[in-house]
């Protein structure tokens, strides 16, 4: 600021003209600074003049800090400079003499793509075109809706089962039913899914049965994870659905790797991976996007931005305009979608799939939605967010009701079908719980199996110690686990 002040000050300029005759020089780009004894710019009592670092004294004033008209006056060859390019490795970069920082946050936020209005009416002129319309025919639409309603019934009953102490943990998808199910509907079964944990709708769509869900939740002998994981850590080889990992965001770099494998095998398929808004604060999110971009891996990153990461509000999570803008930084195409509009999600994912496979490139989708339920059964969200906010999203922005209105308006769904579906699902789920509870637990030896072909000595020792402890304190261990 000090050099600028000196340059602009008419009094000082006149003084200098009288004393050293250098005003002309100032106009031509000479600058004045003050120099502290240590060489800094702190001491205005010892002014000095300089032209450029290589010619004179201590520093350099960048021309771009001057008002635009001065820059024009001073250097008539700027246009020539600006038209030159820096042949930097990777890509040419054009020069500019204008010092302009990119905005941190644009005034206009990235708009959110939607095609159904709040009443479930298709918005005239939207990009949900005839092709999409033909694909979301009666059969697909009814399946999408039935899955959403089923997920709601599952969530109600399994949540209750946890409250009754029959399972240890549960997370609901309440408020986010559309993202998982509509995205799954737009994919093909050969596409590989790496989920976070709030996407059971994808499994449901792919045909994971209610009994399979229940077996995992109860950790019984029919659970593919052999009871070694907490409830909700579903996975299915058959359905191309990777088993959920507890540490947030680990699935993202793995997804980039799986996508690269598909690319090397020249598969006509892509990877789809999900993350929450909280997951994007993990280093893994950034590593994954960068890897995928650089390796040109066909992977769709779907971020369910539901406003909260347990009790952390998105305002405390990032200062950017959400997640969508992060795609550009990594050179990845990205779109912001209304995650509570099933048709918008469907059409965006379908297009993303096409881009990912034909262009062999990643795509980022930010789906705006809201976690209406608590984070999990270990959380009480009324402690950190207003009830009014929850109610608003539950009622006014409910994705299931919105889609139901659309299929009803098409004549594809009725009140009768609604009540039949819900009551039959309720029966199925309760039956599956009873069956899961009756099924034997995995034998104890499974706890130590499947990691090493030949178990190492330390595991053999732990197995021995565990059995000794159970024998000593049988009352502290479940009696239904075969030893
Ligand atoms: C590496 C890691 N840190 C913290 C946790 C604890 N944790 C589990 S879920 C979660 C919040 C994730 O929020 P978000 O990604 O937004 O998903 P949402 O629950 O909203 O669907 C946290 C912090 C964890 N599982 N792993
Ligand atoms: Mg979240």
Automatic annotation (TrEMBL):
Keywords for this protein: Metal-binding, Mitochondrion, Oxidoreductase, Potassium, Transit peptide
Subcellular location: Mitochondrion matrix
One Gene Ontology term of the molecular function aspect: metal ion binding
Segments forming domain Dehydrogenase E1 component: 147-443
Cofactor(s) essential for the protein: thiamine diphosphate
GO CC terms: mitochondrial matrix
EC number: 1.2.4.4
Similarity-based family: Belongs to the BCKDHA family.
Name of the molecule in the record: 3-methyl-2-oxobutanoate dehydrogenase (2-methylpropanoyl-transferring)
């Amino acid at each position: 600021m000090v050099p600028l002040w000196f340059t602009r000050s008419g009094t000082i300029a006149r003084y200098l003209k009288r004393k050293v005759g250098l005003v002309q020089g100032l106009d031509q780009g000479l600058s004045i600074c003050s120099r502290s004894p240590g060489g800094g710019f702190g001491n205005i009592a010892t002014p000095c003049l300089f032209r450029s670092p290589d010619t004179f004294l201590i520093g350099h004033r960048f021309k771009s800090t001057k008002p635009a008209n001065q820059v024009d006056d001073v250097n008539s060859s700027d246009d020539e400079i600006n038209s030159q390019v820096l042949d930097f490795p990777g890509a040419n970069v054009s020069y500019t003499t204008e010092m302009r920082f990119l905005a941190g946050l644009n005034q206009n936020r990235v708009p959110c793509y939607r095609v159904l209005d709040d009443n479930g009416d298709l918005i005239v002129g939207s990009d949900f075109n005839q092709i999409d319309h033909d694909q979301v025919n009666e059969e697909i639409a009814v399946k999408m809706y039935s899955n959403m309603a089923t997920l709601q019934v599952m969530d109600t009953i399994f949540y209750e089962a946890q409250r009754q102490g029959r399972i240890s943990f549960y997370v609901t998808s309440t408020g986010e039913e559309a993202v998982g199910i509509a995205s799954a509907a737009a994919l093909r079964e050969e596409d590989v899914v790496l989920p976070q944990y709030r996407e059971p709708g994808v499994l449901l769509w792919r045909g994971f049965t209610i009994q399979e869900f229940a077996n995992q939740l109860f950790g019984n002998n029919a659970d593919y994870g052999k009871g070694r994981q907490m409830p909700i850590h579903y996975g299915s080889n058959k359905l191309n659905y990777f088993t959920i990992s507890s540490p947030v965001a680990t699935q993202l770099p793995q997804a980039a790797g799986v996508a690269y494998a598909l690319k090397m095998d020249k598969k006509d398929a892509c990877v789809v991976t999900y993350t929450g808004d909280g997951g994007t604060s993990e280093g893994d999110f950034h590593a994954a996007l960068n890897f995928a971009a650089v390796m040109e891996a066909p992977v769709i990153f779907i971020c369910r931005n539901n406003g909260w990461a347990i009790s952390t509000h998105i305002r405390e999570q990032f200062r950017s305009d959400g997640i969508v803008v992060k795609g550009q930084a990594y050179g990845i195409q990205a779109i912001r979608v209304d995650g509570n509009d099933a048709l918008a999600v469907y059409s965006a994912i379908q297009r993303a799939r096409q881009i990912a496979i034909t262009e062999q490139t990643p795509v980022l989708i930010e789906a705006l939605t809201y976690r209406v339920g608590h984070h999990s059964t270990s959380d009480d969200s009324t402690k950190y967010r207003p009830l009014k906010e929850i109610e608003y999203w539950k009622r006014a922005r409910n994705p299931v009701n919105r889609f139901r209105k659309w299929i009803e308006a098409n004549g594809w769904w009725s009140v009768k079908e609604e009540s039949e579906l819900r009551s039959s699902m309720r029966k199925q789920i309760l039956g599956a719980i009873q069956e899961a509870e009756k099924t034997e637990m995995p034998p104890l030896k499974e706890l130590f199996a499947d990691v090493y072909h030949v178990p190492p000595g330390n595991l053999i020792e732990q197995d021995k110690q565990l059995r000794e402890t159970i024998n000593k304190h049988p009352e502290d261990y479940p009696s239904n686990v075969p030893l």
